[in-house]
Each structure stands twice: as structure tokens, then as C-alpha cells.
Glutathione S-transferase 3
Amino acid sequence: MADLVLIGTAKARPFRNVWMLEELQVPYTLRPEIPRSPEVLAMNRSGKVPILKTSASHCLKHPETMLPESTAALQHGNFIMTESAAINTYLADAFRGHVPELVPPAGSQLRGRYEELVSCIITELDAQGLWIHRKHEAMKQFFGHIPEDGERPGDSRVVDALDAAVQHAQQHFCNTVNILLAQLREVGDYLLGNFSAADILLVHCLDWAGVIKWLPSTSIESELQPVLEQYLERCHKRDAYQRAVAQRKAKL
């Protein structure tokens, strides 16, 4: 078995990590698991994926990347971490020296820009955009709405409020994409000039938006639409992306 085990399905956010691992060309095992399965809950009490699991011996080669000793996973002899963006940054640091280098060195100005982009993509595009749709449109039967005094879940005003929240999230998503595309137009082919883990996050969010019909959109500024199309085409042609897509198409 490979030293690295990624737990989760490539049909969701773990796709970001599959793509990253394919770019790094390091051996890994993908163990398909859906959220809140018994195995997932045993390693992450939130029940969420992805989860990255690697042997203790691997972590000792890179002690600066280990979690605090109080972390329960380390007490069991394994290093386990969650959160797709954090996993990708860890992988880049843990395998620094491999070609290509997908995250700039710590302490550099370019690393600061990378961290800025990651924070923007995760908070503005994912959490405040796509995840609002996921909760209140695609999975509203699970998340629903917490009624205020006098409200009932089926009240039209509740439905209207949720619809308005999703519409606002969609507009916020497009506004943020416009900002990132304008920056991309100035920088070059990729967000940092060269391809990086930030591009993996952004492309995954853009692909997700395409699936839920948020893109293409008239809210994307007309002069930026070619920038978006060419960027996606450029990233989708990468061999590692294609290999990750093949993993996504595989059955659980």
C-alpha cells in the first residue's frame, strides 16, 4: 500500500487532493468513502471528507509539518488531517523538491499571495457561494431552515428567504470570479503566473459552478469571459487533471 491514503470520493471536494497528488506524481491510495460513513466518523468527528492519512514514519521525515502531540491521531501512530485546501498545502510542503513546485516557499511574498488566494477561494467562492447552494438548494431536505417564532418550515416566506439567499450567493460568486479573472488577466496563464495549488482550488470551484448551472453567466463581465474560457481550457488539458477526472468517474 502507498504511504499516503486519501479517504473520500473524487466526486466532491477530495477531487482537489486527487488532482494535487497526480500533479506531484507521488504514490497514493484513494479509498472511496462517502461523508459520515463509519470509517470517516472514526477519523473525523464531523463526518466530512477528504481525510489524508499517512504513516508516522513519513511525518518524521518532515517534522515541521506535524500536528501538535496532543492530537489523538498522532497518539495512535498515524498522521491524519482534513480540509482539502490545507491538505494540498501540506502535500506541497511535505514533498518540496519534487517537480513541479505547486506552493511557494514559506515566508516568501509569493507564498503570501498564495495564502491570500486560497483564503479568498475557500471563503468567498466555496463557503459563501457554492456551499449556500448545496445546503439550501441541492440538500435542503437535510439542512432545511430553522424557523423563527411563528414560522413553519413550509411557509412561503421561509421558502422565499432561502431562494433569495441562494440567488445572492450566486451573484456574490460571480462578483468574486470577476475580481479573480481581472487579476488573472494581469498575471498571465495562472493565478501566480505558474500553475499552483491555488489553480486547483479555483478550477474545482468553477467546475462545480458549471454543474449547478451558475456558469456560464451573464454576470461574468464580457471582456473577462474569454479569460475564463481560456483559463479553464488550459487547466483542463493538464494530464494530471485528466487522470483525476478518471478517478472521479470511477464507481464507489
About this structure: Residues 56-77 have pLDDT under 50 and may be disordered.
